[in-house]
């Protein structure tokens, strides 16, 4: 029986791919835009229910075939393409109106992962021609100091995007601080009003949070169809899990959110056509969590000690990459997957904000 | 084989019940409060993940046993209890500070279901001793007329809750109109900022939307444990499906939202320990959609023609009641389930708003 399964499985592989990937012609039609993500407004289709239950198109569960390797979704390359298109837009803006977008970042303390993220944002921001301002506060700074700095950025007309690198030290009230950021400059999109508008049909947030927007963009640019697919999001953080689940739902996936109180997450994850992990736990998602042919987006960036590495540590994802590549049809690597996309989407949101401020089209 | 299954199934029934229902001692500890729903703030538990996958406690799928009948969750009785406690609070308020809560309703057009809902709200509001104001606009009224009326209610210090009966006629911009309602008087909780705060960990909405709050209250008052349960919400409307899914997630259920683009909704629904249907499709949820022992909350209120009825129609739910009662462990009826709870929660939110406005504890 087992011997007979192998050729059947081999024959089925193109079907997974046909199901999960759109034709390249769709890709081409977006080539003149900076990103593929469509206007959120256009995603509001009418929910027209019928009493008859619909048929499933889910493939039968299939066993590992050791010679199968998932397509690696190259976030670095996709992000580079986006950054290059942003740089062109910034040049055009400078040439036509003598202005460039401005991004301001506040960093508190010396978390090594936060420092890495901010360094990447600084480099990327300067590369595309943005004006960049940064304030670094010591770990023991006061809420008042951070809020005052934010107020100055709010009033600065040369700044179009403001972000506070999270997480903040525990003595600072994150919600209170984030609330100080002017809605028009909240390029991280973490304001509750933005999240509410992202969640609700018929509404449109000013900015879609960067990492979730990056995840969707990776799927779209890889030709993965989202509508009608079963999506499982592992983690429900305000900055990744929650907005990613809302965004996937906007794209008409059937979304389940797993969290630490979920019973048997492995079984639920294994039903996902699209599996997004944002739990922050190294190797949480083993091969047995993956449905054959699934597309995996690994948002985890977990620092683990590595003496051979330049900084004494390296980043690994939530997903056991070796096991998952034998089962999934496509997967984002860590590093080089979602990380570069988060930065690209931050630039994208800041550019949008500047265009709006300057009434530049 | 079939013959042998019956005694096994009979023996298993108490296990479903033990799993789904808390002990009554928990119930008693809340008896001096108006409702059982805890403060949302306290629901933010830390997500502590571990790499080891957790074991499932899901029961094996079981066949119908025709002699089994689900417990009917009596929304009317539960709502009456809540309304009676609200009336006591209003008396106390009147006695101590000479004030009562005020509720204002705007109704546009002559939809018979909307008229029924508004009639119920009027009666309930007056019964508990609220001040009640209503404006009825004709179907062809302008956005401006509705907004002006809302502004007057916003400024009226004797009004603490304002609601616009939905749906509005198509020529009116629902989002724009709802946005006019002062956040402090948005007792329906439909403002995007409220929804954002409901969705986000560490945040707290001013008001939880009435129908979702009523659904959770029905579960809690019936002793149904939510944490760790698989919940499926059918429908993703801004006023029921979306906020119900967010609220269930706040109570640490593992939530999946089904919508019109979901493939094989029947299969997914059948995995739910708690099944909430808010699709607005009569008899959408057949017996085959229900997991044995599940708890069903039927939010559907679909008017169907009935010449024997006083108004020429009667309301039925989304769930095929006859089939579901043979499989579920508990179910809310239509009418008499969620409907009365929606009204009770509206009164509850308005009382909270008035208490806040008068600084009355």
Automatic annotation (TrEMBL), chains A, B:
Gene Ontology molecular-function annotations: methenyltetrahydrofolate cyclohydrolase activity; methylenetetrahydrofolate dehydrogenase (NADP+) activity
Keywords, comma-separated and alphabetical: Hydrolase, Multifunctional enzyme, NADP, One-carbon metabolism, Oxidoreductase, Photorespiration
Recorded GO CC terms: cytosol
Species annotation: Sesamum indicum
GO biological process, one term: tetrahydrofolate interconversion
HAMAP family per record: THF_DHG_CYH (MF_01576)
Entries under InterPro entries matching the protein: Aminoacid_DH-like_N_sf, NAD(P)-bd_dom_sf, THF_DH/CycHdrlase, THF_DH/CycHdrlase_cat_dom, THF_DH/CycHdrlase_CS, THF_DH/CycHdrlase_NAD-bd_dom
UniProt cross-references to Gene3D superfamilies, sorted A to Z: Leucine Dehydrogenase, chain A, domain 1 (3.40.50.10860), NAD(P)-binding Rossmann-like Domain (3.40.50.720)
Subunit and partners: Homodimer.
Name used for this protein in its record: Bifunctional protein FolD 1, mitochondrial isoform X2
Function noted in UniProt: Catalyzes the oxidation of 5,10-methylenetetrahydrofolate to 5,10-methenyltetrahydrofolate and then the hydrolysis of 5,10-methenyltetrahydrofolate to 10-formyltetrahydrofolate.
Record PANTHER family: BIFUNCTIONAL PROTEIN FOLD 1, MITOCHONDRIAL, C-1-TETRAHYDROFOLATE SYNTHASE, CYTOPLASMIC-RELATED
Tetrahydrofolate dehydrogenase/cyclohydrolase NAD(P)-binding domain residues: 209-356
Annotated catalysed reactions: (6R)-5,10-methylene-5,6,7,8-tetrahydrofolate + NADP(+) = (6R)-5,10-methenyltetrahydrofolate + NADPH
Family: Belongs to the tetrahydrofolate dehydrogenase/cyclohydrolase family.
Higher taxonomy: Eukaryota, Viridiplantae, Streptophyta, Embryophyta, Tracheophyta
